C-alpha cells in the first residue's frame, strides 16, 4: 500500500509532537532493547484513567452545564479567563499539573463552543499556570515528586527552594492575564440538563479515588482495574474516545530517555557538565526544552548532588517549547483534538507566551539564587541509594559507583 507525501505531511502537521517523539524513540532503539523499568506505568495509568473519566463527564454533559453556569456568573471575558486560569494554578498544587489541565482545559474548550471567545490565549495561560502553581508543592508535578524523594528533601525545604520561582513567574502570569480583553460574555444557550445523576456520582467517586492514587494513598493499578471494570459495565464506548496518541507520545519519550541514559559517553559527559550548581541549573533548563523536564530530571539526577539547582532548572525549563513539560503536551493534544486545523497557531501562541515568562524568570533565578553560597548541594548521606529508576538493570550498579565517585569528588573539592 502506497502512502502519499500529502498524507505524511498532513499527519506531521496534525500531530508534530507525536511524530517528534516517534523519531527520537526510533533513532535510539538500536542502542538497546527496552525493558519494563524504562516506563513510568503509574503516569500512563493515571492519564488513561483521567481520559476515561473526563470522557464520561463529557457524555453526561457535565462540562456543558458547568461552562454555561460559569459564563453567566462572570460578567466579562477577563474575569472568566481569570477564573479558568487561577483554578488551574491553585488546583495543580494538589492534583498535579497534568490532572489540573485534564480537568479544566476541557471545560475551557466547552466555553469556546458556547460563546464566540477565542480561548487559545486562555488555554496557553492555563498551561503556564499549571506548570507554575504545581511547583509550590512536592506532589504538584511528577518531576518534583521524583526529585523530592530522590534527594530526601524536607517538605519545607522543597517549598523554600521553589518559592522564588513561583512568585516571580506568577507575577508575569498575572500581568499576561490582565492583558486579556474585558468584553462582555454572552450566551444564548440555556443551562443544559446533565445525564444520569447516579452515573455522574460513580465517575465523581472514581475521580476522587484517582486523586488519592496521585497522593499515593491508593495503588494506581487498583484504580486502573476499577476504571476498566466500571466502564465496561456502564459506558464501554468510552474506550474508543481515549486519546491513545498521547499515551504513545509518553511511551516514546520514556524509551528515548532510557536508551540515551544507558550510553557510557552520555554518563561521562553529564558528570562533567553537572559539576557546579550553575552548570546544573543551565543544563536542566536546556535539557528540559529538548526532552521535557520529567525525563530530564530523571536523567540528570543520577549525576549531580546539586538538588536545588536541578529542581529549579527543571521547573524553569518546564516553560518554553511545547515538549518542555509533559503537561504542555497534554494541553496541545486536547486543544488540537477540538481544533484540528490549529496546531501551528497553537504552537506559535504557546511559544510566544512561554518565552515571555521563561526568559526573564530564568535570568532572575540564575543571578539572584545560584550564587555559590546559596547553591544548596545535598550531601552524600542525604542521597537515596537507588538514584536512577530508568535504564537497564545491568547499568545500575555502574551508575551508582559513578555517582558515588562524583559525590566524593565534590566533597573533596569543597
Structural features, described:
The protein is mainly alpha-helical and 414 residues long. It has a domain at 142-179 and 243-413. Helix content is 71%, strand content 0%. It is built from 19 helices and no strands. Helix 2 packs parallel to helix 12 (244-261), helix 3 packs parallel to helix 6 (97-114) and helix 7 (120-133) runs parallel beside helix 18 (343-369). It is globular, with a radius of gyration of 22 Å. It starts with a helix and ends with a helix. The model is unreliable at 371-414 (pLDDT under 50).
Topology (elements, then pairings):
Layout: H1 5-14, H2 16-28, H3 41-59, H4 62-73, H5 77-95, H6 97-114, H7 120-133, H8 142-150, H9 155-178, H10 197-214, H11 220-234, H12 244-261, H13 264-273, H14 277-291, H15 293-301, H16 307-316, H17 326-338, H18 343-369, H19 393-413
Helix pairs in contact: 1-2, 2-12, 3-6, 3-10, 3-11, 4-6, 5-6, 5-7, 6-7, 6-17, 7-9, 7-17, 7-18, 8-15, 9-16, 9-18, 10-11, 12-15, 14-15, 14-16, 15-16
| Overall form | globular
Biggest sheet layout: none
Which class of secondary structure composition applies to the elements?
mainly alpha
**Straight-line distance between termini:** 64 Å
Strand content: under 5%
Radius of gyration: 22 Å
